[in-house]
Amino acid sequence: MTLLLGGARAMLAALPLVLCASAVTAADFNGTIDAPALDWSGFYVGATAGGGMLSATTTDYQAFIMGGVGGDFSQSAEGYLVGGTVGLNLQAGAAVFGIEADLQWSSLAANRSLVAGAIENNAAWDWFGTLRARGGLAVDRAFGYVTAGVAAVDAHYFYGWLTPVSPEYDVAVDSIEYGLTAGAGIEYAVADNLSLKLDYLYVGLPTKQVVEEGGFGDEYDFDFVSSAHVVRAGLNLRFQ
C-alpha cells in the first residue's frame, strides 16, 4: 500500500510535464495545437476502488484519563475503499471543465494503545463523499486534471479506558464532519464512451473540539482531528 501511494503521487506530480510535452508534440508548424481526438463533454457515471492512509491526532489538555496521561496522541494506518462516481464535463478546444461527486465506503481506521494497552485512542472513517470541480487539458485520448472541493466524512473517535473504571472516563465522538479536498488525476479513453482513470485526493477535516464533564463536575477539553491521503483507480462510462 505504501509503495502504491508513493508511486501514484510521483506519477501525478509529473502530470503537468507529461501534458506539456504531449501538447508540444501535437503542435503543427503554425504553432497551434491539434484538436483533441475525443470529445469529453457529457454526463458520466463510474466505479472506483483504491486505498489510503488515515492520520489522526487526539489532544488531551487536562490529563483527563486516570493516571495523569495527557498531551498529543497521534496514529496513522492504511485502509481500503470502494465506491461510485457521477459527473459532468464541458469541453472547449483542448480545455475540459466539470463537476464530480463521489461516495466511498472505507476501512480507514487508525488505532493506538496507551499505558500498556489499558487506554485506547482510535479514529475511523466508515464512509466519505466529495463534491469537486475538475479542470484540465485533453491531449489525444488522455485527460489530465486538477480537482478541489468539499468533503463529508462519517468520522468516529474514541479516547479512553479499554475496560472503563467508570463511564465518565472515556470520550467517544460519532458524527458527520465536513472538510476540504484537493488532488489531481489522469483519465484515458479506451473507447469513445469508456475511460480508465487514476487519481489522488487529500481529504482534511477541521478540528473537532469536545468538552467532557468528569466524575467530580470538572470540565476537560479535547481536540480530535484527522485527514487522509487517497489513491483510486476508476472506470467511467460517458453519455453524450
Cα-to-Cα separation, first versus last residue: 36 Å
Number of helices in the DSSP assignment: 2
SSE series: HHEEEEEEEEE
The low-confidence runs, each spanning 5 or more residues with pLDDT under 50, are 2-33
- Percent range for helical residues? 10-25%
Based on helices, strands and strand pairing, what is the structural class?
mainly beta
Q: What is the approximate shape? A: elongated
What profile does the largest beta sheet have?
Answer: 8 strands, antiparallel, barrel
- How large a portion of the residues is in β-strands, by DSSP E? over 45%
Total number of beta strands: 9
In round numbers, the mean pLDDT is 83
Strand order of the largest sheet: 1-2-3-4-5-6-7-9
Q: Cα-atom Rg, whole angstroms? A: 22 Å
Quaternary form: single chain
Question: What's the topology here?
Answer:
Blueprint lengths: L1 H12 L1 H12 L15 E24 L3 E24 L2 E20 L4 E21 L2 E20 L8 E22 L2 E11 L3 E6 L5 E21 L1
Antiparallel strand pairs: 1-2, 1-9, 2-3, 3-4, 4-5, 5-6, 6-7, 7-9, 8-9
Tell me what the structure shows.
- With 240 residues, the chain is mostly beta strands.
- The chain has two helices and nine strands; from the N terminus they run H-H-E-E-E-E-E-E-E-E-E.
- The protein has an eight-stranded antiparallel beta barrel with strand order 1-2-3-4-5-6-7-9.
- Strand 3 and strand 4 form a beta hairpin.
- The longest helix has 12 residues.
- The protein is elongated, with a radius of gyration of 22 Å.
- 33% of the residues are buried.
- The N terminus is likely disordered.
